[in-house]
Amino acid sequence: MEIDTLSVILIFLIVFFVFLTIRDAPNPDVHPLLLTLQSDAAKVRYPGESAVYRRGGSQNGMGIFERDAKTLADLFSNKTNKDMQCLGSRRDGSGKYVWQTYEQVAERVANFGSGLIKHTGLESKDLLGIFMNSRPGIGLVPFICYEGIIDMQLTNKHAMFHVEWVIADLASSHYNLITVAMLSSSPRLTDVINQLQLTDVRVIVVSQETLPVIFSASSSPNSLRHVILVGDNKTVITDEQREQANALKLNLCSFEEIEEIGKKERVEYKFAAPKDTATIVFSRGTTSEGPKGIELTHENILADIAGILTTVHDKQRTNHEDRY
């Protein structure tokens, strides 16, 4: 059978386009033949549970990334560059950022932590509730400081979260307090009441937006005694807010007042151990039973950060020129 020139050209074009399609098609992150090496499944399984999966490249576990960094406070302290910009804010949501250096942030952390202990009587391993609009990822702040990333924040009503969220979180890790990160996105009163009762929190840091919810929740039995208010600029506590707090037998004060107390009466740091609980994070999960609290130790969070640093290629690592 003879094949004419036109048929040859058509066959060639078909083969050529098939080749281009295969060549330019999206490739999987891992070749199908290597997918079995992507993770290592534990040989032991409990009834009703899946296997525990470990990263394929770390079948024998992985150590922490620095021998002298074992807690969240270590991450911040070890990498603090006193003159580098650390936290930036725009109070009105526009204009230039006003920056605080690492040295200034470290000073505020010591002031707030000291004032917190002096004013409220909190001791090591006590709980500090934080109930403000949104929140940074758990362990994200120390990781940012460790990597030397410039941490940029908006602190108005449209903010992702307040600078004071970061200060309170860092202060807790330096004084071995356990933060209770309460759900703040569209909080339901029943959920807030449940979280307060489950944790027996005595001290909580709130924003102007979440304060009314705390007042409403305080009409139900709980252990709350001290409420620390953060404003959009300099915190102003109104007479009405003080009257409401007094009626509920709550001690209401501003974040700045706590810092001022700590500035006058400094308390030495009380560092945690790696296996101490660092935070209790509430999540709604996938059920309708209400938020559930998850305890994370300093060791848990550092292992998570170590996993990130192990996985990310050196050329893709963040540095002081990056911003969050």
Task: Tell me what the structure shows.
Keywords: Membrane, Transmembrane, Transmembrane helix. One of its GO terms (molecular function) is long-chain fatty acid-CoA ligase activity. Pfam families: AMP-binding. It comes from Acaulospora morrowiae. The chain has 324 residues and is α/β, with parallel strands linked by helices. The protein folds into two domains: 54 residues, no CATH class; 245 residues, 3-Layer(aba) Sandwich (Rossmann fold). The chain is built from ten helices and twelve strands. Helix 3 packs across helix 5, helix 3 packs across helix 9 and helix 6 crosses helix 7. About 3% of the residues have low confidence.
What structural class is derived from the secondary structure elements?
alpha/beta
- List segments where confidence is low: pLDDT < 50 over at least 5 consecutive residues: 152-160
Which strands sit side by side, in order, in the main sheet?
Answer: 10-9-8-5-7-11-12
Which CATH class of the largest domain applies here?
Alpha Beta
Count of spatially separate domains: 2
Give the SSE string: HEEHEEHEHEHEHEHEHEHEEH
CATH superfamily of the largest domain: ANL, N-terminal domain
CATH topology of the largest domain: Rossmann fold
Report, as a whole number of angstroms, the end-to-end distance. 69 Å
Helix content: 25-40%
Q: Supply Rg.
A: 26 Å
What value does the average pLDDT take? 81
Largest sheet: 7 strands, mixed
Q: Hey, roughly how much beta strand do the residues contain?
A: 15-25%
- How would the global form be characterised? elongated
Number of strands: 12
Q: Enumerate how many helices there are, as a single number.
A: 10
GO molecular function: long-chain fatty acid-CoA ligase activity
Domain AMP-dependent synthetase/ligase: 163-324
GO cellular component, one term: endoplasmic reticulum
Transmembrane segments: 6-22
